[in-house]
Amino acid sequence: MAHSHPGYHDHHIGPEPQSWWTKYVFSQDHKVIAFQYVLTALFVGAVGMGLSWLMRLQLGFPGKVELINPTVYYQAVTQHGMIMVIYLLTALLLGGFGNFLVPLMLGARDMAFPFVNMLSFWAYFLSVVVLLASFFVPGGATGAGWTLYPPQSILKGTPGSDWGIILMLVSLLLFIVAATMGGLNYVTTVLQLRTKGMTLMRMPLAVWGIFVATVLALLAFPALFVGGVMLLLDRTVGSSFFLPAIVQFGQQLPREGGSPLLFQHLFWYFGHPEVYIVILPAMGIVSELIAVHSRKPIFGYPMMVLSIVVIGALSFIVWAHHMYTSGMNPYFGFLFAVTTLIVAIPSAVKVYNWVLTLWRGNIHLTTPMLFAIAFLNTFLIGGLTGLLLGNVIIDFPLQDTYFVVAHFHMVMGVAAIVAIFGGIYHWFPKATGRMMNETLGKVHFWITFVGTYAMFLPMHHIGLTGVPRRYFGFENLQFIPESVRDLNVFITVVALIVGAGQLVFAYNLVHSIFWGKKVGDNPWRAATLEWQTPTPPPHGNWGDQPPPPVYRWAYDYSVPGEKEDFIPQTRPQVTAGAGGGGE
Amino acid sequence: MPQVKEREGSGIVRGRGGGGNGGGNEPGGLEAFPVPTARLGLWIFMAVATVLFSALVSAYLVRMNLPDWKSLSEPGLLGLNTALLALASLFLQRAAWASRRYDLGATRRNLQLGGLLGFAFVAGQLLAWSQFQAMGYFLVSNPSASFFYLMTALHGLHLLGGLVAWGVVGSRVPPSALSVQLCTTYWHFLLLVWLVLYGLLLLT
């Protein structure tokens, strides 16, 4: 308390750790935890990408690869989905960017509960270990589809129904514990540890996105936790929460009365907010990139904040649009279609505001900016097909086709991952003091961007022709035209190229950590707080001084009459300085 | 050690200082809610636990309407356990009041008694499980029994977590007023959750 003055609290954190273990392994420093999250998530994401290759090889060249049989195919489909949505995107956006950006952008010394924060990473790490271990147990990983719908997910005949499904559920429960411990930190830090002058409506949009997404995570994951525990009990001890009376391999199982639909509700009550848990931080990151790299104040900041909050609130009342074809009451479906379509309004507000921010801006086509623009159009295209699928009557014929696959890959897969790439290229100099190579970055961008469209535009078309998703082979299906097979070969070839293209990113990342061009504290000349501290930020972020006070919003770019084209948040307002506070 | 106390201390002071602002050309605005950070953290955690138990109760309400559901007859011991948990809450409340008066002796006495009653509750719940099994209700006998075990287990785990925190708070010399009060809040919350779950079991 000695250094703090009234109305402002300096958050006390522990002394800088001295031993290697406490500094780099069991660290309580939010920046180290952020790097741990990012590296683990990128690693497991590479595994997920490898699995997508297996899928694509089967779809493009059925029967040509010995290794791939139906079991392997379904395991690849399931684990690809699970890894990408939960263990890569959620972990990287909240655990990685959340940990790195929240304290630095708000002027805090660390998270509110650094010890819990450390536990969060290690619980996540353990969940990844359990997940990967499931590939090596008898019967292999579960192949039930990432939604793990009972009864098929826990019955014999489904790949991995012996051990794979058990490890999958245990891993998910661990992940939820990790996400909750991390989430408690991000929310409390945002609410309590902002530096002097950093009001909620001066917070950068990246923090707003992460904050609202974390609130969603805290309120959505418990439903999956309950569903997961119940499914685990159904599988291990033979309860019938979800299992109806059922015959397995000609044998009547000693169960009755359970409701598979109940699991679907619990799953999607989590599952839909999960989509926004991923996309809101991505939107926040993109808002930062667009403002900085077009040297323009973000257009309509209050509306940007409001739309984040509204999207977050709506996400809890749209979940049943994933279940139109489950036999629900049509009036119920109508209600959910209406709420779903309303999401388009705040989403459109955001897209308009990004475009108006870019409008007549001094656009620098740096690698982060290119990825931000890629986010804009992939999110837009994926969002528009979402409007189609949100209608019950259109969803019915398309639900089980590749159209849905193409839709969600555009809107939450590719859109989120390009925002992550943009964010990494943008904040890499803050984290390391070195730039990533721009030429390699642009090569990576063009491969990824062009590849995305080359893969997913034809996939929309395949879906519209009625090709069902989740099928292992199409050889004897007469209704599938020959052109679809050619398109599948094309998509597979592109997927292999795009996947290999990510090696450029991996090489750039590793190479730049050691040999990247050294830069100063603020190479992008950004106004937000994280760039106003030494690079890389020391333990406690702000040295011996109290964190700097903030006098303005985060987007004072190209202010008329100013020498520089940006004003850091820490520069006092001129007019207020003359008046004085008088206290 | 002193560092931990200092953080909590500043939390209490902050309760009054939130709106003060430093003056100068500060444009004003609140940087933090006027509650200690640890208390806000606990509230958020309780919100998460509330969603967890709400999801469980919703699943219960959906499942009980399906035809194979058989109503349970709860062991009578649960009534006694409820009384134990209520008493634990009461003694912790007394500890919290004593901590506000800086009455160290009364704080520790009530804190210890409250925690011991918490342990007694957990032991009572385990006993209730064995009684329940003696009555012929096993984990998979009927979904109603499965829910009974699941709900008591999840509630018990939350209570055990609370007892770990209680142990940490009690081992500090002297226990800080704020952490005693946080323990109390959490105990009240668990009592409330238990009353809802118990009421649901009794009514259905």
State the total count of DSSP E strands of chain B. 0
Helix % of chain A is 55-70%
CATH class of chain B: Mainly Alpha
Succession of helices and strands of chain A: HHHHHHEEHHHHHHHHHH
Which CATH-level-2 architecture of chain A? Up-down Bundle
Major sheet of chain A, described briefly? 2 strands, antiparallel
Please summarize the sheet with the most strands of chain B: none
Instruction: Using the alpha-carbon principal axes, give the shape of chain A.
Output: globular
Radius of gyration of chain A: 24 Å
Helix segment tally of chain B: 6
| Corresponding CATH superfamily of chain B | Cytochrome c oxidase, subunit III, four-helix bundle
Q: Please state the oligomeric state of the protein chains shown.
A: heterodimer
User: Which blocks of ≥5 consecutive residues of chain B have pLDDT under 50?
Assistant: 1-27
Query: Largest interface, with Cβ-Cβ < 8 Å?
Result: A-B, 63 and 50 residues
Q: Biggest sheet of chain A: strands side by side, in what order? A: 1-2
Decide which structural class fits the backbone of chain A.
mainly alpha
The averaged pLDDT of chain A comes out at 93
Number of domains of chain B: 1
What level of helicity do the residues of chain B show?
A: over 70%
Radius of gyration from the alpha-carbon trace of chain B, in angstroms = 21 Å
The appropriate CATH architecture of chain B is Up-down Bundle
